[in-house]
Specification:
Elements: H1 15-35, H2 42-49, H3 53-60, H4 63-77, H5 87-103, H6 107-118, H7 122-149, H8 158-176, H9 182-197
Helix pairs in contact: 1-2, 1-4, 1-6, 2-3, 4-7, 5-7, 5-8, 5-9, 6-7, 7-8, 8-9
């Protein structure tokens, strides 16, 4: 049984509880995508999921608890890390997964809503950080494998490399509005792989600076 003091999403339920969680998180994700975090209402989510509001409040407490559990579920359901045999192949697979998620009609809007919430709600921000921590942990073995193969230097920061892959894609989603397509994903992966091979993410290496003659 889940403790009343447990963090939402920290206890994996089973049986009927799992079915209730699935229904509620589906409804919460739908509402987030439709209206954003500011209009996420626990009572309305419970009604859509056909779950008693007392059950919803007891398990999730508030809208932020729903967001936290939704992100945990998304991380758990996301594909495992790739093992293509090369750093570029693995990073390309990672970039394609990120691009697919961000361009999905439902998940793309959902991420925009959660990120917007994280800018003004610390609990939502903490939930978002936990989500990315889980995903970076899942994909970090790709960097370890590349080090073992001699593709990149020892001491390369796995999380820095993976962040360099996804950051340009999130920039397109949240700032520039440029398309998040196969070309964008491939370019992000190739740039991160080349920088990693050059040692940019290992021990504070610096890019050489060249000057043109004036």
């Amino acid at each position: 049984m889940q403790s009343d003091n447990a963090t939402p999403g920290s206890v994996r339920p089973g049986g009927r509880t799992a079915r209730v969680r699935e229904a509620v998180l589906q409804a919460a994700g739908d509402l987030l995508a439709e209206r954003g975090f500011a209009h996420l209402d626990l009572i309305e989510v419970a009604a859509r999921a056909e779950v008693g509001k007392t059950t919803a409040y007891r398990r999730w407490r508030n809208s932020t608890g729903l967001v936290a559990d939704l992100l945990v579920d998304m991380a758990e359901q996301s594909l495992p890390h790739a093992d293509t045999g090369s750093l570029l192949g693995d990073l390309t697979a990672n970039a394609q997964l990120v691009a697919k998620t961000l361009t999905d009609p439902r998940q793309g809007k959902l991420f925009q809503a959660v990120i917007a919430a994280a800018t003004c709600d610390e609990a939502a921000a903490a939930a978002l950080r936990r989500f990315y921590d889980m995903r970076l942990t899942e994909w970090s073995p790709c960097i370890d494998a590349a080090i073992a193969r001699g593709e990149i230097p020892a001491g390369t920061d796995a999380r820095a490399v993976l962040t360099a892959v996804s950051a340009p894609l999130y920039y397109r989603l949240l700032a520039s509005g440029d398309p998040i397509d196969d070309e964008a994903a491939s370019t992000a992966a190739a740039a991160a792989a080349q920088a990693a091979a050059a040692g940019i993410f290992a021990g504070g290496a610096k890019m050489p600076i060249t000057h043109k003659d004036s």
